[in-house]
């Protein structure tokens, strides 16, 4: 390749939180190559969020590493998916320069070394910076969807998570929802379509009407709109917590075995409260139960943290006036 690349393909075929933590690296690429066409290989259902980044020209739908990105003509490929070798090998057939972590097993003999104890945002910023595209780890903000939600100002309680180890007990989410509702919050129980029954269960335990269990009734763009205009988000270590960070919405995020030093919100933003029992992080989880570092957190702790997050956000806003 001579001269700057005209067409760049970036692989990040993962979920909401993975996309959100890759935003600064994508913006670093855009700043380094403003004239290039930047294609992101990611799941099709993330399209509404990809549009809110402002650095991506096209989405190439890819379902994890089980399918290949469209074989267009590119001048550069960038692996923001993982350390390899599978993700490296997915891009190798394109036969163009690859920005990736060094992985001799995949035939990638140059690049920075992978650090297992590195925060996910810093990791991908370091990768693109190593190759000459500096990125700002604090550049996490997403644009808000154009249409404001009817439920602007709601507090969102999000009890779902993919892995059982990251699912805080629904009874505790319900206790938090009940306490916040009693304090004057308009509480909505959010989630995916697969979380609909869980959301109704939590709403029932909290004494909330079923209409306030909105899991499965919002697509990903509508969920982003709810978060952008929310009063507060309470959730486990899952994608909606990263949306709260992207929109500066006060949040309380509950962590399991992987702590906030790896996946949490920026420490400099105190209105994002990360709760974690670091002393229990090394304990082995039992099957289909919350990890001990998560299970040790109480509803009372979360309610207190919620008040602190809202107060810190209010104080920060006043300082900017």
Question: What's this entry about, in short?
Answer:
This protein is α/β, with parallel strands linked by helices and 321 residues long. It is 34% helix and 13% strand.
Identify the notable features of this structure and list them briefly.
single chain, 321 residues, Rossmann fold, 2 domains, 5-stranded parallel beta sheet, 13% strand
Question: Overview of this structure, please?
Answer:
- Helices cover 34% and strands 13% of the residues.
- Helix 2 packs parallel to helix 5 (120-130), helix 6 (170-182) packs across helix 7 (196-206) and helix 6 crosses helix 12 (299-320).
- The chain contains 12 helices and 10 strands.
- The chain is of the alpha/beta class and 321 residues long.
- The chain has 2 domains: 7-130, Rossmann fold, CATH 3.40.50.2000; 155-320, Rossmann fold.
- The chain is globular.
- The chain has helices at residues 16-21, 23-32, 47-50, 86-91, 120-130, 170-182, 196-206, 220-228, 239-247, 260-263, 292-295, 299-320; strands spanning 7-11, 37-42, 58-61, 76-79, 98-99, 155-158, 187-189, 232-236, 251-254, 272-275.
Summed over residues and divided by their number, the pLDDT gives a mean of 93
Kindly provide the radius of gyration, computed on alpha-carbon positions and rounded to a whole number of angstroms.
20 Å
Beginning-to-end CA distance, first to last residue: 49 Å
What is the number of beta strands? 10
Helix tally? 12
CATH class of the largest domain: Alpha Beta
Coarse structural class? alpha/beta
Write the CATH architecture name of the largest domain.
Answer: 3-Layer(aba) Sandwich
Roughly how much helix do the residues carry, as a percent range? 25-40%
């Amino acid at each position: 390749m001579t001269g700057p690349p005209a067409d760049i393909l970036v692989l990040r075929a993962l979920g909401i939180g993975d996309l959100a933590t890759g935003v600064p690296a994508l913006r670093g690429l855009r700043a380094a190559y403003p004239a290039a066409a930047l294609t992101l290989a990611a799941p099709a259902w993330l399209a509404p969020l990809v549009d809110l980044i402002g650095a991506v020209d096209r989405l190439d739908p890819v379902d994890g590493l089980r399918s290949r990105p469209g074989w267009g003509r590119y001048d550069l490929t960038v692996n923001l998916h993982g350390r390899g070798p599978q993700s490296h090998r997915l891009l190798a057939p394109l036969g163009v320069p690859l920005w990736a972590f060094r992985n001799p097993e995949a035939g990638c003999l140059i690049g920075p070394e992978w650090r297992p104890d590195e925060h996910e945002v810093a990791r991908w910023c370091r990768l693109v910076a190593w190759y000459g595209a500096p990125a700002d780890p604090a550049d996490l903000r997403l644009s808000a969807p154009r249409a404001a939600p009817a439920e602007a100002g709601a507090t969102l309680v999000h009890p779902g998570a993919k892995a059982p180890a990251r699912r805080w007990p629904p009874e505790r989410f319900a206790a938090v929802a009940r306490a916040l509702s009693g304090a004057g919050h308009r509480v909505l129980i959010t989630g995916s379509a697969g979380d609909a029954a869980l959301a109704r269960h939590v709403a029932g335990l909290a004494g909330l009407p079923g209409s306030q269990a909105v899991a499965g009734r919002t697509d990903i763009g509508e969920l982003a709109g709810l978060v952008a205009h929310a009063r507060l988000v309470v959730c486990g270590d899952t994608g909606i917590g990263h949306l709260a960070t992207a929109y500066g919405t006060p949040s309380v995020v509950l962590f399991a075995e992987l702590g906030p030093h790896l996946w949490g919100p920026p420490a400099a933003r105190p209105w994002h409260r990360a709760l974690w029992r670091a002393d229990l992080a090394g304990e082995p989880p039992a099957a289909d139960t919350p990890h001990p570092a998560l299970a040790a957190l109480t509803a009372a702790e979360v309610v207190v943290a919620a008040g602190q997050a809202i107060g810190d956000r209010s104080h920060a806003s006043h300082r900017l006036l």
